[in-house]
Design goal:
With 621 residues, the chain is of the alpha+beta class. 36% of the residues lie in helices and 18% in strands. Helix 2 packs parallel to helix 11, helix 3 crosses helix 4 and helix 12 packs across helix 17. The protein binds flavin-adenine dinucleotide.
C-alpha cells in the first residue's frame, strides 16, 4: 500500500488534514484507532466561542470542513460579545454530538481519493532523516511520501477518576503506544499535559424549571460562507449555579483529587479549570456558573459545562445533587481528567513539518494545544503542506495579520507552550482586521490559488465583495433628513442635531449609538432590503466598515510595517555561532528554535532589540 499522505488519527486535526490533502489531489489514507469516532467531540458538544469562532470561519474560508459539519448538526447558535466591538464578535454553536461524527464520516467517505482504515499506528518507517511510511499494531506497513501525526490526547494517555487510574485516550478508548518512545529516540523532546471533562447527566433527572433558560439567537446565524442550511428550531440551554454546600463537599474531598494530592503533576488548561480548581483558587466566591447543555436533538443526555472534575464518583454525585435543579440527578458518564504526551511545537517549521524528520507533520493536541477549533485549524494547514511537499510545490503559511490561524501557528512554533494553548482575541495584534465576518475575503483567494478552495467559494466571495462595495457606496451617497435623525436620537436619549437640514447616512451611522436597524426603514434603503439586494448580513458588515474605517486603515498600515520583518527570511542552516556580537542567550535560543523569519525572531522571548538589529545587519548586507 502506497499513499501520498498518511494521516494518523481521525480527530479534528486528522479529519481536516486528510480531507484537505485529498481534496487538493493527494492519495490519502486516514488511519484511526476507531473509525466510528471520526471528529469526535471529546469534551463539550460546542463549536466556536470567543476567538475560536473566528478560527472556524477561517477554516471554512480556506475550504476546511468544520463550519460545514457544525452548520449541519447544530442545535443552537449564538453570536457572543455582541455588546462589544465587532473585532471580538464570536459565533458559537451547540452541536448534536452523534450527528457531528456521523456527518464527518460521511464527508470523509465522499472524497474519492481518501481511504479510511481502522488500526493503531505504532511505528514510523524512516529512511535516513525522512519518514517513508507507518507500521500498525496489526502488522501492516504502509508507504507514504508524507505522514501527519494527530494523536490528540491518546499518546500514553492515563485517565484519572479519584484514585482510579485507567490507561486510555478517552473514556472507554485505549491509549496510543510506542510513538512517543520512538520520537524521543530520534531526538525529539516531549512533555506531559492534562485536561479534564465534566460528567454527562440524564436530562430526565433534572428540574429545568429551577434554572434560567439560555436561548439561541433569533434569527440564528451559521458558520460556513457556503449555502449551508440555517437552523429552523433551536434547543434551549440552561444556566444554574454551584453554592456553598457544593463547595463544602468539594473542599472536604480535595485530598482525593489527583490534581491536589500530587498524582497528576502536568499542567492543565488555565482558562478551563476543573470545578475543584475553581473552588480552591477563588475560595471567596460563593457560587460558580454551570451551563446545562443538551447533547443533541434526540437524546436526554446533557453536558454540564463548568463542572469538569476528576474527583471520585461518590464525590461527583454528592456535589452535583446540591446544585439547584440537580436534586434527583442521575449520572450517565463520570467526569475525569486525562494526562497525555505532547511534543513542544518549537520543534516544528511554520508548515507544521518537524525540523528533525522530513515530511513528518504534527497537528492538533500533540502540539500542546487544546480545543477542537485549534486542532482543526492546524489539521487544515498540515494537510495542505503535506500535499504541497509531496508534490514538490511551495509551502503555504498564513501571516499573523492574515488570520488567527497565522497567530496560532506562529505563537506555537516561536514561543512554544508549557500549558495547553487556546486562542484568545487578545493574542492577535491585528484583531480588527481578523474579524469573523471577513475571513472569506482574507483567505479564500489564497486557498484557491493552491487548489483547496473551489471555484464555487471564489464566486460567492466575489459576489459578496461586490454587494459590500455597492452598499458602502449607497450609504455614502444616501442623505437622511434632520427630522428623521432627531427622531432616532431622541429614542436613544442622545442630543439632537441642530445644524443642516440633511445629513449623510454613513456619517450618521458612524455615531457609536446608531445601528443599521435604526435606519432600515428609510424608504430608499428599505426597498433594497425588501428586494434582497442588500441582505442584512451585508449591511451589518458595511456598518462595521463605516464605523471602524479609521481603525481599520490604521491597523492595515501597522500590519504592513510589521510584515517587512516577516519578509526577511533566515536560511535554514544559518550559522548563528559566527555572529560573536549576539548575546549568548539570543544565540542559544536562535539555535534551539531556528526561526524562519526576522518576524519570528522578534517574538522569541529573551531576544533583545539589540540582538535583532545585529541579526538584521548580517542578513540584509
Ligand atoms: P483528538 O480529538 O484527541 O483525536 C485524536 C485521534 O487520533 C483519535 O481519533 C484517536 O483514536 C486517534 N489516534 C491516536 N493515536 C493513534 C494512533 N497511534 N494510531 C491511529 N489513531 C490514533 N478542549 C477544550 O477546548 N476544552 C476542554 O475543556 C477540553 N477538555 C477535554 C477533556 C478531555 C477528557 C479530552 C479527552 C479532551 C478535551 N479537550 C478540551 C480537548 C479537545 O478534545 C481536543 O483539543 C481536540 O479533540 C484535539 O483534537 P485532535 O484532533 O488533536 O485529537
Amino acid at each position: 500500500m502506497t499513499y501520498d499522505v498518511v494521516v494518523v488519527g481521525g480527530g479534528h486535526a486528522g479529519a481536516e488534514a486528510a480531507a484537505a490533502a485529498a481534496l487538493m489531489g493527494s492519495r490519502v489514507l486516514l488511519i484511526s484507532m476507531n473509525i466510528q469516532t471520526i471528529g469526535q467531540m471529546s469534551c463539550n458538544p460546542a463549536v466556536g466561542g470567543i476567538a475560536k469562532g473566528q478560527i472556524v470561519r477561517e477554516i471554512d474560508a480556506l475550504g476546511g470542513q468544520l463550519g460545514i459539519v457544525t452548520d449541519s448538526t447544530m442545535i443552537q447558535f449564538r453570536m457572543l460579545n455582541r455588546s462589544k466591538g465587532p473585532a471580538v464578535w464570536s459565533p458559537r454553536a451547540q452541536s448534536d454530538r452523534k450527528r457531528f461524527t456521523e456527518t464527518w464520516r460521511r464527508i470523509i467517505e465522499r472524497i474519492p481519493t481518501l481511504d479510511l482504515f481502522q488500526d493503531m499506528v505504532v511505528y514510523l518507517l524512516l529512511k535516513r532523516e525522512r519518514v517513508i511510511g507507518v507500521k500498525t499494531l496489526l502488522g501492516f506497513e504502509i508507504q507514504a511520501k508524507s505522514v501527519v501525526l494527530t494523536t490528540g490526547t491518546f499518546l500514553n494517555g492515563i485517565i484519572h477518576i479519584g484514585k482510579k487510574k485507567i490507561n486510555g485516550g478517552r473514556l472507554s478508548e485505549s491509549s496510543s503506544i510506542n510513538i512517543t518512545e520512538q520520537l524521543k529516540k530520534l531526538g525529539f523532546f516531549s512533555g506531559r499535559m492534562k485536561t479534564g471533562t465534566s460528567p454527562r447527566i440524564d436530562g430526565r433527572s433534572l428540574d429545568f424549571s429551577k434554572m434560567n433558560p439560555q436561548l439561541g439567537d433569533d434569527p440564528p446565524g451559521k458558520f460556513s460562507y457556503l449555502e449551508t442550511p440555517r437552523l429552523k428550531n433551536q434547543r434551549c440551554c440552561y444556566i444554574t449555579h454551584t453554592n456553598t454546600e457544593v463547595h463544602k463537599i468539594l473542599q472536604s474531598n480535595f485530598n482525593q483529587s489527583p490534581i491536589f494530592n500530587g498524582t497528576i503533576k502536568s499542567l492543565g488548561p488555565r482558562y478551563c479549570p476543573s470545578i475543584e480548581d475553581k473552588v480552591y483558587r477563588f475560595s471567596n466566591k460563593e457560587h460558580h456558573q454551570i451551563f446545562v447543555e443538551p447533547e443533541g436533538w434526540d437524546t436526554n443526555e446533557v453536558y454540564i459545562n463548568g463542572f469538569s472534575t476528576s474527583l471520585p464518583d461518590r464525590v461527583q454525585y454528592m456535589a452535583l445533587k446540591k446544585i439547584t435543579g440537580f436534586e434527583s440527578v442521575k449520572i450517565l458518564k463520570l467526569g475525569y481528567a486525562i494526562e497525555y504526551d505532547y511534543f513542544p511545537p518549537t520543534q516544528l517549521k511554520p508548515t507544521l513539518e518537524t525540523k528533525k524528520i522530513k515530511n513528518l507533520f504534527h497537528a492538533g493536541q500533540i502540539n500542546g494545544t487544546t480545543g477542537y477549533e485549534e486542532a482543526a485549524a492546524q489539521g487544515v494547514l498540515a494537510g495542505i503542506n503535506a500535499h504541497l511537499k509531496t508534490h514538490k510545490k511551495d509551502s503555504f503559511v498564513l501571516k499573523r495579520n492574515e488570520a488567527y490561524i497565522g497567530v496560532l501557528i506562529d505563537d506555537l512554533i516561536s514561543k512554544g507552550t508549557e500549558e495547553p494553548y487556546r486562542m484568545f482575541t487578545a493574542r492577535a495584534e491585528h484583531r480588527i482586521l481578523l474579524r469573523q465576518d471577513n475571513a472569506d475575503e482574507r483567505l479564500t483567494h489564497l486557498s484557491y490559488r493552491i487548489g483547496l478552495a473551489d471555484s464555487q467559494r471564489m464566486r460567492l466571495v466575489g459576489k459578496k465583495v461586490n454587494k459590500l462595495e455597492k452598499s458602502f457606496n449607497f450609504l455614502q451617497n444616501l442623505n437622511i433628513t434632520k427630522k428623521f435623525a432627531n427622531l432616532i436620537l431622541s429614542k436613544k436619549n442622545s442630543p439632537n442635531i441642530n445644524h443642516s437640514l440633511t445629513l449623510n447616512a454613513s456619517k450618521f451611522l458612524s455615531r457609536p449609538e446608531i445601528n443599521i436597524q435604526d435606519i432600515l426603514f428609510i424608504p430608499d434603503l428599505e426597498k433594497f432590503v425588501k428586494k434582497k439586494i442588500f441582505e442584512e448580513r451585508i449591511l451589518e458588515q458595511t456598518l462595521i466598515l463605516i464605523k471602524y474605517k479609521v481603525y481599520i486603515e490604521r491597523e492595515k498600515k501597522n500590519a504592513e510595517k510589521l510584515s517587512r520583518l516577516e519578509n526577511i527570511k533566515i536560511p535554514e542552516h544559518f550559522n548563528y555561532q559566527k555572529i560573536k556580537s549576539l548575546s549568548s542567550e539570543a544565540r542559544e535560543k536562535l539555535m534551539k528554535y531556528r526561526p524562519d523569519s526576522m518576524g519570528q525572531v522578534s517574538r522569541i522571548s529573551g531576544i533583545s532589540p539589540v540582538d535583532i538589529n545585529i541579526l538584521l545587519i548580517h542578513l540584509t548586507f
